[in-house]
Amino acid sequence: MFVAEVNGRPGDGYVAVRVTGDVDTGTRAELTDALERALAVGAPSVLVDLTGVAFFAAAGVHCVERAVGALEARGGAAHVVCPRPGAAWRVVSLLGLQRQWLVHQDLETAVAGCMAGQ
């Protein structure tokens, strides 16, 4: 079962999107909606937690890439939690996205990055 949950923490400088389940063409619209809601809050950082992702298809990569680009265009930062081993890490590392995105192995490090304004 796919879930994309948005938790607003704009007072702390970030909004979190927790994603669980399979991310593919069937769940792309829900993920896009969650990421757009997070961006609409206007916080300087968005934390995208992919820890609970069981399958991460190209559709999911595209959604996250668009959100990262939109946030960077307005001077913000996206922090992506993508632990290894894991389904999301496998795809992110194969595509070399850890060199383009701010990828963290755990939630605590990502939260610290968000709160530090990185």
Sheet with most strands: strand arrangement: 1-2-3-4-5
What letter string, H or E per element, gives the SSE order?
EEHEHEHEH
The proportion of strand residues reads: 25-35%
- Tally the helices: 4
Q: How is the biggest beta sheet arranged?
A: 5 strands, mixed
SSE diagram, text form:
Elements (H helix, E strand, L loop, with lengths): L2 E7 L4 E10 L4 H13 L4 E12 L1 H16 L3 E5 L5 H9 L6 E3 L2 H9 L3
Parallel strand pairs: 2-3, 3-4, 4-5
Antiparallel strand pairs: 1-2
Helix pairs in contact: 1-2
Organism: Pseudonocardia cypriaca
Protein name: Anti-anti-sigma factor
Pfam families: STAS
What does this protein structure show overall?
- The model has no long low-confidence stretch (mean pLDDT 94).
- A five-stranded mixed β-sheet has the order 1-2-3-4-5, sandwiched between helices.
- The protein contains four helices and five strands.
- The protein has a single domain, classed as STAS domain (Transcription Regulator spoIIAA), CATH 3.30.750.
- Strand 2, helix 1 and strand 3 form a beta-alpha-beta unit.
- The chain has 118 residues and is of the alpha/beta class.
List keywords for this structure.
Anti-anti-sigma factor, 5 strands, Transcription Regulator spoIIAA, STAS_dom, 118 residues, globular
